[in-house]
């Protein structure tokens, strides 16, 4: 099981690079080597963050991407939500369909507690923390 997929990993690296660069905009070409991913893949990931309001996109000469929020206001949980979707650990581990004991399942309730703590931890990490 991978907790954070590679999109989240690359996005976090790119946002840290942008925050450190302290420039109005940073091009995908500038980020490519630092992040360690191909330009098309990185551009696609950054466009998704732009649509979610985490980044601003600037077109034309000198264009690129800029943080739409301060680094302390961009949380790892934001990246997970946009690039992975909801983090769910508490689906039934025994069958593909929910069993008749779904609501009373002790294992499901224990895993739900772990999920809650995990989400709180992801929510506590910001891009500023990673700089």
Helical content stands at 40-55%
Q: Return the CATH topology.
A: Arc Repressor Mutant, subunit A
The helix/strand series, from N terminus to C terminus, equals: HHHEEHHH
Low-confidence stretches: none
* Number of helical elements: 6
What would you call the shape? elongated
* Rg over CA atoms: 18 Å
Strand content: 5-15%
Strand adjacency order, main sheet: 1-2
The total strand number stands at 2
Please name the CATH architecture: Orthogonal Bundle
CATH class: Mainly Alpha
What would you give as the CATH superfamily? Winged helix-like DNA-binding domain superfamily/Winged helix DNA-binding domain
- Main sheet attributes: strand count, strand direction, barrel closure: 2 strands, antiparallel
How would you briefly describe this protein structure?
The protein contains six helices and two strands. It has 131 residues and is mainly α. The relative contact order is 0.17.
Structure notes:
This protein has helices at residues 6-21, 28-35, 39-51, 76-83, 106-124, 127-130, and strands at residues 55-58, 64-67. The protein is mostly helical and 131 residues long. It has one domain (6-130): Winged helix-like DNA-binding domain superfamily/Winged helix DNA-binding domain (Arc Repressor Mutant, subunit A, Orthogonal Bundle). It is elongated, with a radius of gyration of 18 Å.
